Amino acid sequence: MEERLQKLIAQAGIASRRKAEELIANGEVSVNGEIVTQLGTKANPETDHIKVGGKLINPKIAKRENVYILLNKPKGYLSSAADPEGRNLVTDLVSPKFGKLHPVGRLDYNTEGLIILTNDGNFTNLVASSKKVPKVYEVKVKGLPNANAINKLRRGVTLDDGFKTAPAEIKELKHTENNGWYEVTLTEGHNQQIRKMFDSVGHSVVKLRRISIGHIKDDRIPVGAFRELDAEEVGKFRKVRNER
Q1: Bridge-partner residues for 22, per DSSP?
Q2: Please, which pLDDT band fits residue 98 given cuts at 50, 70 and 90?
Q3: How does pLDDT run across 5-33, given as a tens digit for each residue?
Q4: Does 108 qualify as catalytic in the annotation?
Q5: How far is CA 81 from CA 12, 117, 128, 215, 221, in A?
Q6: HEC profile for 95-142?
Q7: CATH classification of 3-63 is 3.10.290.10, yes or no?
Q8: Which of 48, 108, 199, 218 is catalytic?
Q9: CATH architecture of 135-213
């Protein structure tokens, strides 16, 4: 059966769909010896020879088993599968027996907490982009924001880069004398969004940790450790796509 090339590349575990689209646009994908740059082009992996960077990916499409890893990311690790600067990567923390994996969405370099690694590009696209998969964070900020500042963040603010945030759920946790603690729930994933949100009201983030991704809440995993998601946990994410 014919499928879009970016979907097949994702199924092969080469890249997420978004990254696969970049590979196609850059002329790195060919079908039956012909370079393809048109997004939306379809191919049949059972009859067409599909290559990425000159390498045939049909065997990977046919044989690949999907892997889903939940990692408790420490600070000082980049949420990427590669880095030209040679920094520590989240993929370095997972056993090589799982093969080539990539992170589902991102946690910035100095943020801790839960992140999923997989070789399933379709799953990545579903979880990272869905507004039905909330992400929850524990946030420690410098100083004690007043109620007006927090309510402003709850309603949504325009960041310095021009991005307008959606309304966010913010619960106050137990504060200390010099620091405010909050639980923030987001349904979007703008780059360093929580840090920029609190910067916009004059209270910089001191510590940030993601504590849940949708229905996944796991405090048992030590920092830097991981476990595999089971079929039921993965299946619940797929059900979200069909919910209204």
Answers
A1: none
A2: confident
A3: 988 888 787 887 788 899 999 999 999 99
A4: yes
A5: 15, 10, 16, 25, 21
A6: CHHHCCCEECCCCCCCCEEEEEEECCHHHHHHHHHCCCCCEEEEEEEE
A7: yes
A8: 108
A9: 2-Layer Sandwich (3.30)
